[in-house]
């Protein structure tokens, strides 16, 4: 594994490695390019696939955040119940 070589390595990064904001921003860009048209069928398919991948990343980030929130709320509810008892 070599050191980071700036932008080229970032564009080659798998969607999985992206943070939520990065994935969301790139997804917005993908949608914008698809809506703008003027892409070949091949380009559109590649964009669509990338969009699906990015949407999946965003969904997993949000599900993870929801799970952490639920766990925190459950801990809080448990603490309150213990105080009342």
TrEMBL record:
Superkingdom as given in the UniProt entry: Bacteria
Gene3D superfamilies cross-referenced by the UniProt entry: Exonuclease VII, small subunit
Keywords: Cytoplasm, Exonuclease, Hydrolase, Nuclease
InterPro entries for the chain: Exonuc_VII_S (IPR003761), Exonuc_VII_ssu_sf (IPR037004)
Compartments, as annotated in UniProt: Cytoplasm
Protein EC: 3.1.11.6
Top class in the EC scheme: hydrolase
Entry GO MF terms: exodeoxyribonuclease VII activity
Catalysed conversion reaction: Exonucleolytic cleavage in either 5'- to 3'- or 3'- to 5'-direction to yield nucleoside 5'-phosphates
Cellular component, GO annotation: cytosol; exodeoxyribonuclease VII complex
Segment forming the signal sequence: none
GO annotation (BP), single: DNA catabolic process
Record NCBIfam families: PRK00977.1-3, xseB
Role, per record: Bidirectionally degrades single-stranded DNA into large acid-insoluble oligonucleotides, which are then degraded further into small acid-soluble oligonucleotides.
Similarity comment: family membership: Belongs to the XseB family.
Protein name, UniProt field: Exodeoxyribonuclease 7 small subunit
Species assigned in the record: Streptomyces griseoflavus Tu4000
């Amino acid at each position: 594994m070599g050191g980071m070589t700036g932008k080229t390595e970032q564009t080659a990064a798998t969607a999985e490695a992206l943070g939520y904001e990065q994935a969301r921003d790139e997804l917005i860009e993908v949608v914008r390019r698809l809506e703008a048209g003027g892409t070949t069928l091949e380009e559109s398919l590649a964009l669509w696939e990338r969009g699906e991948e990015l949407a999946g990343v965003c969904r997993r980030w949000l599900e993870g955040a929801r799970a952490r929130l639920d766990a925190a709320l459950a801990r809080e509810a448990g603490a309150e119940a213990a105080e009342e008892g």
